[in-house]
Specification:
alpha/beta; TIM Barrel; 8-stranded parallel barrel; 3-stranded antiparallel β-sheet; 13 helices; 13 strands; about 40% helix; globular
């Protein structure tokens, strides 16, 4: 199956050209380079959307994932490129973060490469086209993999009213989503991480669960709820949050979002404010993943995000308890071939991953 998938001409060409493309893109301002790369991918993969690669499929959160490798939120914020990204072979794609109203995000520059560290710092600030525009795009989408929708609050929405923003997004986007991610952990929207405080988090998650049940009944389909947590918490704080998720019966946790810490970095832009992702996050994210697995057991699905830069990283995350893994910065530095590399590696080690 993997060999057959690799022979797709457009993706095969892209993989061969990636070292050259990467050099050209890395000579450009990062946000402009990302937009240019996505438009180029769109031109290269204009044929019908591909089915996900079937490799090590699994049932998770009541959904069937054709493979456990997905695209993390932030790469395709506005659901413009699901068609193109499907050709890479992801088992699931997560779009967003989506807010009720459109917003421009933080001033540019707001995306920085730390090439020596294989890392990225971003302070994007939930720039997106808003739920109504994204809903129209998703309505036209015929991606056959699992589609996650990552949602958040608008920057000018006070935390006391944050629940209304999450509920508005769920109501608008539910017909097109396979699961929702409640993003309370981005460091780039002022005050957002305060929603991780246990009383605020309990209020928010309890409210969206009530709406979840109503939407599931109306739409007659499962709509798993996942919460995305920050890695920047002491053990007691993280334990408290995870126990709440377990006791409320949420379906999943993404562990983790970007970090505001700066562990032993070499990049020139290390002092830039924002969330750090990539290789320096691997160990911290894995530590939090192990904590989460110990508390959640088999009751709550774990999606590993943060520092998945290689096949070995993906295998390690699964050994620590992840049911699924997501890529973002690894895709930037290693290219689209990373998806096939991970899936090939998992296929060769299926017994170890079972």
């Amino acid at each position: 199956m993997i060999r057959k998938i690799i022979q797709r001409k457009d993706v095969m060409v892209l993989n061969k050209l990636f070292p050259v493309i990467k050099r050209l893109l890395f000579a450009l301002e990062p946000e402009y380079a990302h937009d240019l790369a996505m438009k180029g991918l769109h031109l290269l993969t204009r044929s019908n959307p591909y089915d996900p690669i079937i490799c090590n499929p699994r049932e998770c959160m009541g959904l069937i994932f054709k493979n456990p490798v997905g695209l993390a939120a932030g790469f395709d914020k506005n659901a413009n490129y699901i068609h193109s990204l499907s050709g890479i072979g992801f088992g699931f794609i997560e779009v967003g973060t989506i807010t009720p109203r459109p917003q421009k995000g933080n001033p540019r520059p707001r995306l920085f490469r730390l090439e020596k560290d294989e890392a990225i710092i971003n302070r994007m600030g939930f720039n997106n086209d808003g739920m109504a525009v994204v809903a129209k795009r998703l309505e036209r989408c015929n991606y056959s993999g699992i589609l996650g929708v990552n949602i958040g609050k608008n920057k000018d929405t006070h935390n006391d009213k944050a629940t209304e923003d999450y509920e508005a997004c769920m109501t608008c986007l539910a017909p097109h989503a396979d699961y929702f991610v409640i993003n309370v952990s981005s460091p780039n929207t002022p005050g957002l991480r305060d929603l991780q405080e246990i009383k605020c988090l309990e209020k928010l998650l309890t409210s969206v669960q009530i709406l979840q049940k109503r939407l599931q009944h109306t739409l007659k389909k499962p709509l798993p709820l996942v919460v995305k947590l920050a890695p920047d918490a002491d053990l007691n704080q993280q334990t408290e949050r995870l126990k709440l998720v377990r006791d409320l019966g949420l379906e999943g946790v993404v562990m983790s979002n970007t970090t505001v810490s700066r562990p032993a970095l070499q990049g020139k832009q290390v002092e830039e404010k924002g969330g750090l992702s990539g290789a320096p996050l691997t160990a911290l994210s894995s530590d939090m993943l192990k904590v989460a697995k110990q508390i959640l057991g088999r009751k709550v699905a774990l999606i590993a995000s943060g520092g998945v830069m290689s096949s070995e990283d993906a295998m390690e995350k699964m050994a620590f308890g992840a049911d699924l893994v997501q890529l973002y910065t690894g895709l930037v530095y290693r290219g689209p071939a990373l998806v096939n590399e991970i899936l090939t590696y998992l296929m060769e080690h299926q017994q170890a991953c079972a």
